[in-house]
Design brief:
This protein is of the alpha/beta class. It has 3 domains: 2-113 and 325-337, no CATH class; 135-305, no CATH class; 350-511, Alpha Horseshoe (Serine Threonine Protein Phosphatase 5, Tetratricopeptide repeat), CATH 1.25.40.20. Helices cover 62% and strands 6% of the residues. The protein contains 23 helices and 9 strands. A 5-stranded mixed sheet has the order 2-3-5-4-6, sandwiched between helices. Strands 1-7 form a two-stranded parallel sheet. The protein has a two-stranded antiparallel sheet with strand order 8-9. It is elongated, with a radius of gyration of 33 Å.
């Protein structure tokens, strides 16, 4: 679960960084250039989608690629290859020392309780919002069923996309229906507004239908159920809502060829409306007082921005999207899933009592107690604080019988632990040839790299175990596989050859192709 929590924490951080960046850049564009409301609405929709999807692109799985580079680094023969490998080494050292703006497992380990609380609140909030959406859907469907067709002969010349219905239950004019869109008008508005006042309102709702706003608002609401906690999504949603309403205002005003009449219609309607019920399947005409003021002021401005063509909008949104993705790939730090998974496996998730009981059982070679703990749900591969996994402890103790029993209980021969390597590294460090062969026969990865503990061959070479080095080389260990290892003052490159403790081991490694 620590792995999943770390991924979640990194996604949340990246979502916030991407969202804030996109919001600020787009806001700056809006201030520096004259952009029509139509264009603004679709650019904000693009920002909404980018904030949701771009963080996923930051997650990579590149352990294999990194290891390949490390394997190639010291295989140089010609002068040009030597120069290239030196560049590779510099790149690896830079990568090892470069700080990353990501959340690591060690940070999450001490915050698991807080993160669980946040996830619980997230789930409750999502369920509550989803419940509200379902209730709104039900009330909208009932509203559609109860609505009656209006006699709108005098409006048919202007209304081309929907039929008009009247309802005593509706509190605001709205467009409803995804497949068969309708415009629903409250009875009291229909009775009290004349044709001049009502026409702009109907044209506004028709604009929502023509722009497919009903579909996009549903898409927004679904994502809002998941990201209800995100301040970035809330800010972008507000911008989408306001620019969308303005775009429909301008469309309606363009049909009337009179912005002042449209602004007056908004005021007349507002006087008759006391409350508004916004709907996930409906686009209401009026909104908050501040937004209504902005809309009326926009209508009364002397300058008029021509509505751009669909192709222009599509091109602008595509350019904004691709540019944002390209910049995100350059600036946003990558999150290595394999590295997080490996790191998460280094941390014990057992309670102190269970940890002590399991360690005692391992030291006493009491397989019965270990079996009972496994049956009770304890993962035998869980690293134990400062001791490694149960199998690593057994290997360190040169206990072949216990190691075999643990493997039968499900112990993974490749499970690593921070500061204790993995079972094969433990065998190499204790010079246990029999256990090393046993683990390799069971599928232990001979060239497995454990951060901070290097590889089995590097450890055997460093400790001066000639027979172990020979065994590993005979079993296929890469004589040139090196790693970047952390040290007190930074990092250094370690390979079997440069870590060899004596000349005999160096000559053996070079006979297997190790390069100096």
């Amino acid at each position: 679960m620590l792995f999943e929590l770390t991924l979640f924490a990194n996604f949340t951080l990246l979502h916030f960084l991407v969202g804030v960046s996109v919001y600020l850049v787009l806001s700056l564009i809006m201030k520096c250039f004259i952009v029509s409301a139509e264009m603004r609405s679709w650019l904000w929709v693009s920002a909404f989608v980018l904030s949701t999807l771009v963080p996923f692109a930051a997650f990579t799985s590149n352990n294999a690629q990194t290891q390949t580079i490390e394997k190639q680094t010291f295989n140089a023969v010609t002068p040009s290859e030597v120069a290239e490998t030196q560049e590779n080494l510099k790149a690896l050292e830079l990568k090892a020392s470069k700080p990353e703006l990501t959340i690591h497992t060690d940070s999450i380990y001490g915050l698991t309780s807080a993160i669980y609380l946040f996830l619980f609140l997230w789930l409750i909030g999502s369920c509550w919002r989803a419940f509200g959406v379902i209730r709104t859907l039900q009330s909208t469907n009932q509203l559609i069923k109860d609505a009656t067709p209006a006699s709108m002969d005098k409006y048919q010349r202007l209304l081309k996309s929907a039929s008009v219905y009247l309802s005593s239950s509706a509190s605001t004019p709205m467009a409803v229906g995804l497949l068969k869109p309708k415009i629903i008008v409250p009875n009291h508005l229909y009775q009290q507004l004349n044709q001049t006042q009502l026409t702009p309102i109907l044209l506004h709702e028709q604009a929502h239908i023509q722009r497919f706003d009903l579909w996009f608002s549903l898409f927004q609401e679904v994502l809002a159920i998941i990201f209800w906690w995100s301040p970035v999504m809330r800010k972008i949603n507000r911008q989408i809502h306001l620019s969308r309403e303005l775009a429909c205002d301008f469309r309606a005003a363009q049909s009337l060829s009179n912005n002042q009449d449209y602004a007056q219609s908004l005021l007349d309607c507002a006087k008759l409306m006391v409350t508004e019920k916004r709907n996930v399947m409906a686009m209401g005409l009026l909104s908050k007082k501040k937004e209504l003021t902005i809309r009326i002021n926009e209508m009364l401005k002397p300058t008029y921005t021509q509505r751009p063509k669909v192709a222009t909008i599509a091109a602008a949104c595509a350019a904004f999207t691709f540019t944002s993705i390209a910049l995100a790939n350059t600036v946003i730090p990558k999150v290595n899933i394999d590295s997080i998974k490996q790191s998460a496996n280094h941390y014990s998730t057992l309670s102190e009592a269970k940890t002590n009981l399991l360690i005692s059982a391992i030291e006493a070679r009491n397989t019965k107690v270990i079996e009972l703990m496994v049956e009770d749900g304890v993962d035998v591969n869980t690293p134990l604080a400062s001791d490694g996994t149960a199998l690593i402890i057994a290997v360190k103790n040169n206990d072949r019988e216990l190691a075999n029993a643990l493997i039968e209980m499900g112990a993974d021969v490749n499970q690593s632990a921070l500061g204790d390597g993995n079972p094969l590294i433990a065998a190499a460090m204790t010079n246990n040839l029999s256990l090393a062969n046993y683990l390799l026969d069971l599928g232990a990865e001979i060239d497995a790299i454990v951060p901070g503990d290097e590889t089995a061959l590097i450890n055997a070479s460093h400790h001066g175990y000639y027979d172990m080095v020979e065994l590993l080389l005979e079993r296929g260990a890469d004589a040139n596989l090196g790693v970047i290892a952390p040290v007190v003052d930074g990092s250094e490159y370690r390979s079997p050859l440069n870590r060899a403790s004596n000349g005999q081991i160096r000559r053996l490694l070079m006979s297997y192709g190790a390069k100096s």
